[in-house]
Amino acid sequence: MKTTNIKQALAIINEEYNSDDGLLVLFRLSSDVEEKRLDIFIEALKAIEDYYLDKTLIEKHLVYRLLSFQMALNSSAHHWKVSRPKGLTAQAVYNINMAIYDIFTND
């Protein structure tokens, strides 16, 4: 699925944030994640970046959610020395971190 607009992207972010089996929970628990699901999440992040590219303000609740995903993922990643959750390759973690970073920069 290609996320083409901000409404779809925000719906994906909200679902992954609020759901009992959303990515936020899976990141915190260091659970396995389907690669396709991560691809959809990253596409949503890129759509958000595109939308906010010429804006000077990002809503507080969205900033909180994005940083919550990033902090949960990075915190869990510090414990993956022996085994890594399926789907969360080093490249996937990097792609998520960069997609969130890119939302807040104009580089």
Helix and strand content put the structural class at: mainly alpha
Largest sheet: none
Beta strands, count: 0
- Count helical runs: 5
N-to-C span: 26 Å
* Residue windows where pLDDT falls under 50 for at least 5 positions: none
Radius of gyration: 13 Å
Mean pLDDT: 93
Shape: globular
- The helix content, as a percent range, equals 55-70%
What count of domains describes the coordinates? Answer: 1
Determine the oligomeric state from the structure: single chain
Task: Describe the protein's topology.
Layout: H1 6-18, H2 23-29, H3 35-52, H4 60-77, H5 90-103
Helix pairs in contact: 1-3, 2-4, 3-5, 4-5
Describe the structure.
This protein has 107 residues and is an all-alpha fold. It has one domain (6-103). It has 5 helices and no strands. Helix 1 (6-18) crosses helix 3 and helix 4 runs antiparallel to helix 5.
Features:
globular; 107 residues; mainly alpha; 5 helices
Q: How would you concisely characterize the structure shown here?
A:
This protein has 107 residues and is mainly α. It has 5 helices and no strands.
